[in-house]
Amino acid sequence: MSNVAIIDFEASCLPDDGESFPIEVALAVVGGPSQSWLIKPSWHWRYWSWSDEAEALHGISRTMLQSRGLPARQVLAELAHAAAGLDIYTDADLDAYWLEVLCLACQAPLPFKIRYLGELFQTMELTPPAVSSAEKAALTRLPMAHVARKDAQRLALTVQLLSS
Fold it and tell me: Backbone phi, then psi, for 139, in 5-degree steps?
């Protein structure tokens, strides 16, 4: 499983609340390191939606993104480098959407394909109860949610627990 990684994005709002853009992304290698990036909003997104609820949920403000976020192009380049040679999975289709939004702002092609985590579980021939049990164990160890790095690490730990 050393070639498997989990990606997770946090966004300015959920699609039901308007046109959302990525504000944070994380990549966690199963059984390995993790990395996260705050994304300084691209000028392409200047009229897109921002939700106070999402800000409170993620603990990321516009001010924080402006002062500590990296330019979208830099985030995409570093993310692509970190993901090189890895099979990338997510538990949410929205993560693929936010990768596309990031790429469009950078006028760059998708650097990798994101697969649904359920596909990996199927290839591992896991039962739903086994997956649920591993998810609960990972949640006990890494309870913080809606922080990209913690979410990616928790899912990577779930995969690791299921593969051991």
Answer: -65, -35
Task: Look at residues 2, 8, 4, 1 and name the one whose alpha carbon lies nearest to residue 152.
Answer: 8
- Percent of the chain exceeding pLDDT 90 equals 90
Where exactly are the structural domains of the chain? Answer: 4-158
Q: Write down how long the chain is.
A: 164
* Pair 2, 29: CB distance under 8 Å: yes
Contact call for residues 112 and 88 (beta carbons, < 8 A) = yes
Class of domain 4-158 as given by CATH:
alpha beta
pLDDT digits (tens, 9 = 90+) for 57-87: 899 999 999 999 999 999 999 999 999 999 9
Asked if residue 57 lies in contact with residue 82, where contact means CB atoms within 8 angstroms, the answer is no
Between 5-9, 66-70, 141-145, 146-150, the lowest mean confidence (pLDDT) is in 141-145
- Which residues are within 8 A (CB) of 60 and not within 5 positions of it... i.e. 6 or more apart? 10, 23, 24, 38
